[in-house]
Amino acid sequence: MRNRIAAMILASFGATFLAAPESVAAEKFQKLSGAQIRAKLSGMEVTDQVHWGDVYGRDGTLTSYSMGRKTVGKWRIEKDELCSDRGKDSSGCYQVWISGNKVELRRPGSDLPLEGILSKPTKRN
């Protein structure tokens, strides 16, 4: 009986351990073109699901929520990059890479992407 239980535990552990590399391998990010960026982001939100969220309006409005603070700016596509104008806060252009609902905004020359989740906009007051 003990051998059977031990075998089941090892088999379960092995299945979990062996499945992990597949999920990592499946997470291949694809760089989006300007048309793909517009199609994916228009009317959607990119968020870390805790601290901040950027809502990309279909009209080019960028509504940002960060730590309870709301700001409004603009977004556009230039040379296959997502560009934002947040006024005095920050502005810039990013390559957009996507894998499923995971998004990375990569600035050329930087090793640290801005990581977020693509979702329908969260309703806020």
Give a structural overview.
- It is a single chain.
- The protein has a single domain (30-119), classed as Lipocalin.
- It is built from 2 helices and 9 strands.
- The chain has helices spanning 2-26, 34-41, and strands spanning 30-31, 44-47, 52-56, 61-66, 69-78, 81-85, 91-99, 102-106, 114-119.
- A hairpin with a 4-residue loop joins strand 3 (52-56) and strand 4.
- The radius of gyration is 20 Å and the shape is globular.
H/E topology pattern: HEHEEEEEEEE
Q: What is the C-alpha radius of gyration, as a whole number of Å?
A: 20 Å
CATH class identity:
Mainly Beta
Number of helices: 2
Number of domains: 1
Write a brief caption for the model.
This protein is an alpha+beta fold and 125 residues long.
Compile the SSE list and pairings.
Elements: H1 2-26, E1 30-31, H2 34-41, E2 44-47, E3 52-56, E4 61-66, E5 69-78, E6 81-85, E7 91-99, E8 102-106, E9 114-119
Antiparallel strand pairs: 1-7, 2-3, 2-9, 3-4, 4-5, 5-6, 6-7, 7-8, 8-9
Record keyword descriptors for this entry.
125 residues; alpha+beta; Lipocalin; eight-stranded antiparallel β-barrel; 2 helices; 9 strands; 42% strand; disordered N terminus
